[in-house]
Design brief:
By secondary structure, the chain is α/β, with parallel strands linked by helices. The chain has 16 helices and 7 strands. It has a 7-stranded parallel beta sheet, with helices on both faces. Helix 2 crosses helix 3 (39-53), helix 2 crosses helix 13 and helix 3 runs parallel beside helix 11 (225-235). The structure holds adenosine-5'-triphosphate and magnesium ion.
């Protein structure tokens, strides 16, 4: 059952409202009413609840882990939800907080770097062929104390098909690739992922301590939830994928009835602890990208930046705790 937001609770307490108890119950009913107003929400909730009836055995084998890095995969099966925006700005905010952060682009669109001011024409990339270790070191040195970005690289269709084939053959393919790029001292590795199912999306989900599922506040995004949970169940052993998933609603606009109902319905159907937060729609976000700048630099006083800061704080606490509890290995970081 959803619980009342802490700020709202404090407000009620400070004004001595006798309705606190009643309102908790009302919130519990509201999410079902919200879903009933929109057939796709009700149908999606049914599919999620059916899936949750199926018990998945827990992973019992403890595997060894190396490094101290917490990995967050930012995912969605719908395109354009804001994965790259969230990945870039989350990484940058963690970097501003003094953390050693790397943001890695696993999407052939090669767009993550744009948020960090790259032009997209650079030949350097996580998947570019024949890079010497010195070139990687030189690239990372560009970012000094800020979050470093590893672009996907400008690859041709044939090269991408080759990578897909190689990663399909070798389950450790992504882990090995990241190991050659991510410095040992990295504390947070943020993975921007492609929207479509691919061998390396599977590997990213397996590596991640936290899978941050980004949803748009619309029917199309909401309808991807059962397929997302199905992928997590299928691809990450022992039910760990579903346990590590945390949900974030992006581009939320509280003036729109459907946005409010999507948020309310989501918060009702998933366990409360798996809800990360909602980030509002704000034109400063799209304008920042158009200027190839991070939102956290472009609009530091905006509501959306306050929300991104809260997300980074949440990641520092929650994702790090989830990492400690996780039996799967993290990226075995390289010798650099
Ligand atoms: N909170 C927000 N408010 C307003 N616009 C946003 C917000 N988040 C993202 N956008 C805009 O939505 C568009 C898509 O964002 P982004 O590229 O981050 O999504 P994506 O999920 O990575 O997309 P793709 O599937 O193409 O990789 C961009 O123009 C971005 O500026
Ligand atoms: Mg993207």
């Amino acid at each position: 059952m959803p619980t009342m937001n802490d700020d709202v609770r404090k407000l009620f307490e400070s004004i001595g409202s006798p309705e606190l108890e009643y309102r908790e119950v009302a919130a519990g009913e509201r999410w079902q009413a919200a879903a009933q107003r929109w057939p796709i929400l009700a149908q999606t909730n049914r599919l999620i609840q059916e899936r949750r009836q199926v018990q998945i055995p827990r992973e019992t084998t403890q595997r060894s882990r190396t490094g101290r890095c917490t990995t967050i995969a930012v995912v969605s099966l719908a395109g354009g939800t804001g994965r790259s925006t969230i990945a870039a700005n989350l990484a940058a905010t963690l970097g501003q907080n003094g953390r050693a952060v790397v943001a890695a682009d696993l999407d052939p669109q090669n767009a993550l770097g744009l948020h960090f001011g790259l032009e997209g024409g650079e030949s350097f990339g996580l998947f570019s062929a024949n890079l010497a270790p010195q070139e990687v070191a030189l690239w990372l040195a560009r970012f000094r104390s800020a979050a470093a970005v590893l672009p996907f690289g400008p690859l041709t269709g044939a090269q991408i098909a080759g990578l897909e084939a190689a990663s399909a053959r070798e389950p450790q393919w992504l882990q090995k690739r990241l190991a050659a790029f991510v410095p040992n001292e990295t504390e947070f590795l943020v993975l921007d992922t492609p929207a479509r199912a691919s061998p390396w999306l599977k590997q990213a989900l397996t590596l991640a301590d936290t899978v941050l599922v980004v949803l748009g506040p619309d029917a199309a995004g909401y309808a991807t939830l059962p397929a997302t949970e199905a992928l997590l169940d299928e691809w990450v052993p022992g039910g760990q994928g579903r346990r590590r998933a945390r949900y974030l609603v992006n581009k939320f606009d509280a003036r729109r009835a459907l946005d409010r109902d999507v948020l309310s319905s989501l918060r009702g159907v998933i366990p409360e602890r798996t809800f990360a937060r909602a980030i509002h729609a704000d034109e400063v976000v799209s304008e920042s990208l158009a200027r190839r700048r991070l939102v956290v630099r472009e609009g530091p006083e905006s509501q959306v930046v306050a929300e991104l800061s809260a997300l980074a704080e949440w990641v520092e606490v929650t994702a790090a705790e989830m990492r400690k509890a996780s039996p799967l290995p993290l990226v075995s970081v390289g010798s650099r």
